[in-house]
């Protein structure tokens, strides 16, 4: 009971602020939630308990939660707001599966959306006045959050995978956002509405630039495409004072991605990322014009800012981030930088005067994310964010093989390499500041040190398999069975 209380508080204090999709009414206790909403309580335990139990216990909690959810949702055919919310938590913070044959993230999301439609969450009556501090206002806000969260999840997953979206934006979503923003039933509703709005903007970019449409394309040389990219950039910059900069940089990447397309090769920009993602990189040519040069520079700047913002997050806080929303897009930004490197290295131009290989800072960023993956795995071996980053070790080997002629990465850099804690209003270029990626065991558990310039890298690391040659062609193409990343525990070299 004491452990359950700690997990409950950890969810409220650490998980909800990152993505306030399923929040609890003020005064809700773990005993009350366990009694009235046992499925939601179990889902909370399964996603937030890694700091309070063993790996085996955490694994059993995840299995028990999945069994309960799918027993009720599929076998019994039950439908309820509690089930929708429990599925949302299981999707936002899903844990590593035993193998690829288990229910995937997209399957969970489809079930959740179908149930939300059947429950009529898209038809909440907003015409009836309710007491702003009463139970009716809370119930209405809870239904609105659940419906908007379905869109947030489905759109983010669809864009990462470059698939047709499972939900489209509708006028009722605008009404829900306005109602939530005005009612302010929960202090976190304002932030939640901003997350939904910016994900809607990503969705609009996807549609306008045909990022997921294999039959239509947008040319970066088309004046209309250039104008749309500039318009999206202006709209994103207007958010700068209101939203997390991390989210804004992702939008800038999507807005300028068409400049890297060759014959609409959007399959190279979909997750899971493999060597095929780096296949076509001839977008830098003799005939590239000023607008396209500026778009490429914008991709470099946005990638650096996104990575700086992410690497500035305390390590303990990373464990409570939604894996696909953060991890998938961090890897995406690194893949874009690698494509830029390959294009620069193979360009027919002797020395492109607007962009140099050194401007990419790939060595530092690849090293940093690998260090993050290793340290996260040390803390929580079942964390999807850290396991998805294991692919960056392979990406780093690919980069060093092509640039330095060796597939082996160099030793970790000296303590002065890359700024990890940018100012909130900055997130700009790399700077020479102390390497702060260390873990300290303090009175409050694992903490990340940002201030000690003499702190050393954590000694306990995760070993990476070196010999992939014994695996068959079929095993190397197991990638198609996954959602947005391939777990490195299957020992498949995806970039060789």
Automatic annotation (TrEMBL):
InterPro entries linked to this entry: prtT, XnlR_reg_dom
Keywords: DNA-binding, Nucleus, Transcription, Transcription regulation
Gene Ontology biological process terms from the UniProt entry: DNA-templated transcription
Principal location listed in the UniProt entry: nucleus
UniProt GO cellular component terms: nucleus
Protein name as catalogued: Xylanolytic transcriptional activator regulatory domain-containing protein
CDD domains listed in its UniProt record: fungal_TF_MHR
Ranges for domain Xylanolytic transcriptional activator regulatory: 27-168
Localization annotation: Nucleus
Entry GO MF terms: DNA-binding transcription factor activity, RNA polymerase II-specific; transcription cis-regulatory region binding; zinc ion binding
Annotated source species: Claviceps pusilla
Organism phylogeny: Eukaryota, Fungi, Dikarya, Ascomycota, Pezizomycotina
